Amino acid sequence: MTDEIRQILRDHGRLPVDAGTLAVDEDLYRAGMTSHASLNVMIALEDHFDIEFPDRMLTRNVFASISSIEAALSELRSETALQ
Amino acid sequence: MSAVSVDRDQAFLAAVERIADEVATPNADSVDREARFPVEALAALREEHALSAFVPEALGGGGVSFETIARACFELGRRCGSTAMVFAMHQIQVATIVRHADSSEWMREYLQRVSAEQRLVASVTTELGTGGDMGRSIAAVTPAGENLCTFEKQAPVVSYGAHADDLFVTLRRDPDTEQNDQVVVVALGGQFALEQTGTWDPLGMRGTCSPGFVVRAEIAPDQVVPTPFGQVMAESMVPITHILWSHLWLGIATDAFDRARAFVRAAAKPSDSGPAPAAVRLSHLMSELSLLRAEVGSGLAEFVELGEGPDRERLHTMASALRFNNLKIAASEQAPRVCQGAMGVCGIMGFKNDTPFSVGRHLRDTLSASLMIANERIHQTNAGLLLIAKDV
User: Fold this and answer.
1) CA distances from B381 to A9, A31, B185, B388 (A)
2) Which chain B residue is nearest to residue A14, measuring alpha carbons?
3) Is A25 helix (H, G, I), strand (E, B) or coil?
4) Nearest residue on chain B to A61, judged by CA atoms?
5) What is the rounded distance in angstroms from the CA atom of residue B128 to the CA atom of residue B139?
6) Rounded mean pLDDT, B133-159
7) pLDDT averaged over chain B?
8) % of chain B exceeding 70 in pLDDT
């Protein structure tokens, strides 16, 4: 999943650095992701993983790093699997 | 809420109402006509220690509630829009520092100084080259030796900059970082120099005295607010700005309505043929004012509710961002609508600048509302958020 997230960040995060070189816990906003770019990342994540982020997850902290995005996606997938 | 805090809030509000009536009212016309800073009202507010009203008592402040600060903006707005705007902007800065700097020794000492010396804080947030986007900065905190940083910021607007004791400035964290990696710093009087870059002869809010300046400063590294800027924006600066501004716009619109009502009453005669046309127009105007009042009141109530809880996490949701952005858009458009309606009721007596029913200043002051953080920019932000937010 980490590689897929990195690819989406590469395509939509408009980061001044290569998303492949970021540490999983590195702050994406401090790395230069604008709030507009973060919206595009969210849309791409929803489309790619065929999920919808509920409003409680639509906070800055959830999209602040690769690992926090991965944690949110895992939580959503386990909820879907339980249903 | 304890009886003591209710008493404290009521005493503060009574003092602000007295200043609004006795000091802001008689000076409002000359402040507007001469585009001069409301020195008399600010002196009176300082005397009542109103500039530290929101600072906790433990740091020497008044410890009044946020709702009371909002109510004070409303009361001042009813008497002098410029005084209310200066008061509101100062409170935005103070409230932001109070809410985010309690871990910093320097910031706590600073709040004690604000309380003891009634220091007035201006904000330097907009910058040439960022297209009015507060979420980007070009000027940066620049290391300049041991325990020393400098910055130089080209600000197209600094409200009451020449009258402020201290400045609250958004900057890039360091010269090598991206434009959106920002921090807030406090620069003290004596640490900065202002070079005015424009004139100040605007349509309304003339007493805020807000020309452009180049700001050059030397500060110590611990004058940087420690909390990440995104968090400061979401939890405090954005919602508090929109709530306090909309309260003072409601105050201006309420006074315009009161003048229209007084005009209708002065002209009323006993009649068998029902109310006069102007009286019916006043009734229409009241429903417009009610909409504004409801939006402003519910915005405040939701902020207080969302801000409860240890981590203010709910203020970080997109639904919360949309809520307070929409408060700003709605209030900034509705306030001048009410003022123009009041002019329609009063007719030529409202259009003239020297009658008890004049509402020209009210209309001009509220026309600034949609420009202060341009509504069109906020709509662009909201349009993006709406693509992904669900339960809004």
Assistant:
1) 20, 21, 25, 12
2) B178
3) coil
4) B316
5) 10
6) 95
7) 95
8) 99
**CA of A8 to nearest chain B CA: how many angstroms apart?**
16
What pLDDT is stored for residue B1 in this prediction? 59
Q: What is the pLDDT of residue B28?
A: 98
pLDDT digits (tens, 9 = 90+) for B11-40: 999 999 999 999 999 999 999 999 999 999
Q: Which pLDDT score is estimated for A59?
A: 85
Residue B363 CA: distances (Å) to CA of B249, B279, B374: 10, 20, 18
B283 in Cβ contact with B369 (< 8 Å): no
Q: Which of residues 139-198 of B touch A (CB under 8 A)?
A: 173, 177-178, 180-181
Q: Are B261 and B86 in contact (CB under 8 A)?
A: no
Give the confidence band of A17 by pLDDT, cuts at 50, 70, 90.
confident
For residues A26 and A65, the answer to whether their CB atoms sit within 8 Å is yes
Structural element, H or E, at residue A46: helix A35-49
Q: How far apart are CA B103 and CA B227, in angstroms?
A: 9
Q: How confident is the model at residue A79 (pLDDT cuts 50, 70, 90)?
A: confident
Report yes or no: A81 at the B interface, CB cutoff 8 Å: no
DSSP run (H or E) holding A47: helix A35-49
- Count of all residues that appear for chain B in the document: 392
| A17: chain B residues, CB-CB within 8 Å | none
Distances (CA, A) of A79 to A48, A50, B143, B354: 18, 14, 48, 68
CA pair distance B360, B339, nearest whole angstrom: 8
pLDDT tens digits along B295-341: 999 999 999 998 876 778 889 889 999 999 999 999 999 999 999 99
